[in-house]
Structures are given as C-alpha cells and as structure tokens.
Amino acid sequence: MSAPAEVAAPDIQAYMASVTAAAHAAARAMARSGTAERNAALEAIARALDSRRGELAEANERDLEAGRTTGLDAATLDRLTLTDDRIDAMIAGLRQVAALPDPVGAIEHLQPRPSGIRVGRMRVPLGVIGIIFESRPNVTADAAALCLKAGNACILRGGSEAHHSNRAIGACVAAGLAEAALPGEAAQVVATTDRAAVGELLAAEGQVDLIIPRGGRSLIERVARDSRIPVLKHLDGICHVYIDGAADEERARAIAVNAKTHRLGVCNAMETLLIDRAVADAMLPKIASAIAEHGIELRGCPASQAIVGGMLPATEADWDTEYLGPVLAVRVVDGIDAALEHIAAHGSHHTDAIVTEDWSRAQRFLREVDSASVMVNASTRFADGFEYGLGAEIGISTDKLHARGPVGLEGLTTQKYIVLGEGQIRA
User: pTM score, two decimals?
Assistant: First the structure.
C-alpha cells in the first residue's frame, strides 16, 4: 500500500472533512476491537517497517535533499534522518507498546449501593486524537502505536520538512492495520503540507476529541489559541532544583549536575538552581564548579555572584527562560518559603525538585508546588513516561484536565460510570 496522493490546495477543506469523518467512524471500530487485534496490528506495522526499509530511505532522502536546499541546520537535519538504527528503534517501540497492559475495559471502584446496584468506572478510549508535530518522523510510528493500543483513531499531521518520510511510515501503519483487519482510517497521515489543513483539524469539533501538539513554543501557542477542541500540552519546561538548608551535600551536587547536564535540549532539564542561603557558602562553589565543567554558562543573582567568582549576572528574564542549552540560572534564597515563592512566580508547572533530609520540608514542597511532577531527592530528568513505568509516552501535560505529567496509554483513555443491577428500580 503506497502513500496517498498529495492533496491540492483548493480541496483542503473537503479533504480534511473526509479525513475527520473517516477517523470518527474508525474510532467506533477501534473501541470495539480486542487487545489481541490491536496487538496484532502493532506487530504487523513493525514487520512492514522492517520490510520497507528501502522505501523509507528513499522517502527520507527526498526530505533531506529538500532540507539541504532550503538551508535547514545540521541539528534539524539530524533529527530528520531515518537511519537503520532509528527504524530499529521504531520497530522496538511498537513491540514494547504491544507488550504493555491494555487499559481499555478495566473496571475500577465497583461498589454496592443501598439500592442493590453496583456502581463503578470503566476505562474507555477517548475517540479521535489529532497529533500535530514537527521534525522527527519517528513520532508518526510512536504516536500511532500509543493511540491504537488505547483503542483510539488518530490523525497525524507532521511538519512539512518530514512530509515524505511521514507518509511512507503512514503507509506501513495502514498496511499493518489492514493485515489485522482493522480500518486503515484509524491512523491517517495528512497528505498535504498546506497549513490550512491544521486550521481545519483544529476546527473539527464533534469529529475530533483531543489535540496533542508536539514541537516548539510557537506551534503549541498557535494550537492552543486556535483550537476549538481540548488540547493536551505544555509550553515550557522551566524546571527548578531547590537545595534546602538540610540537604546532603554530595546528594545535592549529584542531583544538580545530572538535572542540568544529562541532556540539555529536553523539557525536564533543570533551568534554575535555587539554594538556601544557610548552605550556599559551603555548597554552591562545589556545585557550580561541577556544572561549569560541562561547559555550562552560569548566570546568578548578586548573592550567587559574591560566592562564585566569574559568574555572569542574571537578569529578570533569566528566571523565566527555558534555555534548552548550556545556560543555568542560579539564585540564593532565604529558605523554603522563598524557594516556593520563586517557583510559584517563575515556574512553568512542569517538574520541580527539592534536595533535603528534612521530611517535613519535603512534604511542604510536595504539597505546595503546583507542578505536574514534584520530586524529593531525585533529578528532574526522571520526569519521563518510561521512567514512570508507563512504558512510553505521547508527551507531557502541564494542564490539569484530563491528564497531567507524562501521558501514556491511560492518559489516552477516559472513564465512564457503569451500573450493574439485577432488576432494581428507583423508588
């Protein structure tokens, strides 16, 4: 099965209407499918990716050639490239998702009521999920796998720079669905680079149940602003590590270094280090030196600069910046109250951590920090679906409805109340 033909601009509205209507119909078939059928589809998609490596490479080269012509930078071209190892990773990811427990149909909290009825909640698919993403073509396979395993249909709109690669992967997904006797419309790759298609998708109220944007801030802001459909998102990862006055020095150093330097361009990397004034003189020079050894530029408040020579001055904007690179903001604070105030004023509700041996302060931090992930004595880099035992994630949500934090299979479902009776009628 080859990728669908490119859609001409005048037909975008009609085309997207047909895509969303087909996905809506396919979602009903997916909701009634069984775990074995969905797992069989994922395995068939994995085999299709393996057998069509040549077609994938050819499509990917078209995207790379276009990217080189338009002047894409080396980092973007690298993210765009489909190597054999990356195809292997997509295949492994599909099989890992197939091996995960199926959340669909699980019944929770089934309780008897005085009337004799039993009331509980059943986990069910969301329906149709629209995913709008940039650059990495592997997202096509990863997102389809998670949506399909959770019994949903999905509409995948990747960036124009990976258009041919995404469609070639989408053809493998369609082939796998057909082999498992599931509707191919359950996972559709939008067959146009016209940006009007995104607008049509965001307006498909009643046909699409959730939108998930994955990409830069400008993409996510545009989707959140224009969508008439609920959006699962996070805008920034301004993550803090607070070193409390009761912190263990070696533990604090190891956590701070890992949180900032393990990977720079990720949303769960530390961007601001807060340290209690009570231990700043003793601990900050060693921590700052260990972080600076990794090529990180330190920007500090006046108190931090007085303790660590050569530290650049931090501006007010530094406290509100997600660097995604080799820069760290550092601030000395007057204890946990000041740390909590700083995080409340400048955090992005993503991930924040405290390092302390005082459990009462740890409990305060857990209760009072309003973030999707709050940690005690652990690196912020653990804010990840795999590390949380979800197996895989579709993204991270800083919203409070309906899913928060790393979103795995369960986050791609919802619940409905079920009532089991034996002929009861209400008096």
Answer: 0.90
